[in-house]
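Job type: complex structure
Entries:
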Amino acid sequence: MPNTELSSAVNTLEMPENPHTDNVLCLENQVCFSLYSAANAMVRAYRPMLDKLDLTYPQYLVMLVLWQEQGISVKTLGDKLFLDSGTLTPLLKRLESKGLVSRGRSDQDERVRVLCLTPSGQALKREASEIPHLMRCKIGAELDDLKALKAMCDKALAQLHASID
Amino acid sequence: MPNTELSSAVNTLEMPENPHTDNVLCLENQVCFSLYSAANAMVRAYRPMLDKLDLTYPQYLVMLVLWQEQGISVKTLGDKLFLDSGTLTPLLKRLESKGLVSRGRSDQDERVRVLCLTPSGQALKREASEIPHLMRCKIGAELDDLKALKAMCDKALAQLHASID
DNA sequence: ATGATTTAAATTGTGTGCAATATAATTGTG
DNA sequence: CACAATTATATTGCACACAATTTAAATCAT
């Protein structure tokens, strides 16, 4: 629709930009930037709490999964967290070296790792149990807002997974 | 609303968990995990488009800012993007080595960098101008939903910034 | 004016994310 | 049964994020 050619000729040094391009490429109009910034801020906000458990946020996510279900493979874990072995293998080695997780092998299939919690890993669940409440205070939003935010993130995630490329 | 208590008793091997704890620490109830996953998926979705411009997503954000306003400092850029010099300095050096950005020094204050676009950096705006539209197709959401998502991310971000620890 | 404080960038080190590739075990096929 | 294709992890390399520290320049306070 608009005069793209004209504006970029001008663009390069001194003159008013193409209003369309300018609008669209404006930081304030970028949903994705808001998403990205909010996610970064969220991880930062978790840090002081997770420091007390000697966990990073991705490590905390892995623990959440294992507190729910043990004996799963790296593949299953990756499917739940939308992360691949390139991320998870070193992360799981760190959790193992902290004595929280064991990385066994399946008897049926020598390729697959069987991920379980050590007693310390299990015990850490109790210390973690207050984190969700503390975090809800930090975000300080209404429950309905949080539900709506989660619903929309899940929807966007599903859409992005659907359109693989 | 299934029998969460019953199932988690089985979970751990021997002991019934606190049903409250179990619910709260469940991955499916984590707003932050949705936010985190959506943000990761979003960056992944940008990748094939940004590859054509030889930019990463954070580099694209820097270019968005500089397409709007040049001659700003690293500090100002960091304030806009919520990123610090530890992230931006190496990123800006990469943009400089690609010939997109110049990193001058202020005359008034020798400490501050003055960030400007090279002609190539300016010219890249034209190629980038189609990205927002392509991205909107990938997310495939209604405009109202996107506005709502952005509004809630911005609100959460503001809250998290307000409660500095 | 000078020493202390503040400020802007840069540096260092750790831990992701993820593409690309490698390795090894399992499965499918003729 | 051999052998090609698939699958589960692991490895490598690059680019963030960010805490912590350092360096150097500017400002403040006496």
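Summary: Residues 40, 43-44, 47, 73-75, 85-86, 88-90, 109-113 of chain B lie near DNA strand C (CB under 10 Å from a C1'). DSSP finds nine helices and two strands in chain B.
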